[in-house]
Design goal:
Number of strands: 13
Structural class: alpha/beta
CATH architecture: Alpha-Beta Complex
Strand content: 5-15%
CATH class: Alpha Beta
Strand order of the largest sheet: 1-3-2-4-6-5-12-13-9-7-8
Radius of gyration: 21 Å
Distance between the termini: 18 Å
Number of helices: 16
Number of domains: 1
Order of helices and strands: HHHEHEHEHEHEEHEHEHHHHEEEHEEHH
Length: 478
Amino acid sequence: MADDLCALDAVALARLVRDRRVSPVEVIDAALARMDALEPVLHAFCTPTPELARAQAERLERRLARGEPVGPLAGIPIGIKDMLLTKGIPTTFGSALYRDFVPDEDEPVVARVLAADAICLGKTNVPEFAFSSVGHNPIFETTTNPWNPATNPGGSSSGSGAAVAAGECPIAFGTDRAGSIRIPAAHCGVYGFKPSRGVVPSAGANDFMTVTGPLSRTVADAALFLSVIAGYDDRDPWSVPLPPVDWQAALTGGAAGLRIGLSLDWGYAPVDPRVREIVARAALVFERDLGCVVEEAEAGWSDPWDAFLALAVAGIDPAGLRRVGAERGHELTPHVVAAIRYPWTAEELTNANLVRQELYAKLRALHERFDLLLTPTVAVPPFGLLTQGPEKIDGRMVEPLEWIPFTFPANMTGQPAVSLPAGWTDDGLPVGLQLIGRRYEDATLLRASAAYERAAPWAHRWPPLVESLRRQPVGTAP
């Protein structure tokens, strides 16, 4: 029964709980049993909260027994990324500097999901300050990939991606500054939705580029989560009072007639041949099966990474970190130290904003021709642990983060973007495709995602680690 509950999506679980066909306590016991079995390998949760989860489930069970109304996420176990403030639970940002920090309030989106009766399994692991796209930091065990624990789950929402892929929870929070929702979604074979900047409040984010969104096993689960977390909040200076979106209705209607611009390399990025082949094959689904018009798209810009990095550093308070780093720099990740100690100039930061404006103009021009842009999510399949990236891509020597060329442009422009499972390599590693939509046309992106999922479903496929767990006698390790 426990494995059956862990295999269900959030929409089904919430329905069963509301109808009192399954107790929320049963659901949480199943999730915690899955964590007990897999966390010694995965380390997806840096701060598990089993006692809190059981207490929340028991309170919800009593309310259901009294016939009280419950929220749309009733009984759904979730993971909360360790970048989001959670009242009474350590929030470390993956850094020794915040090892003992316990917030006295919840992030607005966290408060919303708890008010909707989701149940917190704990905080999910992140690289330090989410300033990386991998799964390790200085204070917790390294998060591994459920499809092959010798490989990286991607990041910075590394624990969230691994937890969802392994069925520890059907939905988890991600935040995304450079692709941090979409990258682990691609590497863990799940769905990741980065909303337009301003659709979901990110009150704890200091910069325009960082947004909050879900990682889930299904598109419908992401829509359910977005129906709770989206909406204006004045505490976020970039939050926008948009008309409400009917996220559930956005799942219907199909994708026929959508114009999609395809780029497998932006014209400059090195890409693993396996990724090219799998994404190109998945792009055919949109044209052959869904009735979309798919054409090659020329990006028309040069690599904006240097400008992005300047904007990203400006968003993590480099002055404050330099002051702390003067005394405790030895406790920080080396690449974080390098970024904050680099002598940034006013000209570099000013030029970065000019590059952002030019990139926005180029992407806006593309969207005059195309409703959506389709690219690989990242340039490589999952690679080894404890590294920032592969040394070579397609035979070419690359910089440590040159494997994420496709994701961060949408952060610079504020556009919505998703990662969908495109397929698996011959050795069983997931590959993702990315769709980028026009700003504030998040519903169109969700509609296209749902249509693709119906044509090329993926949620039935589980990592070998989970399949081996199902074959193990009760009480034994996988």
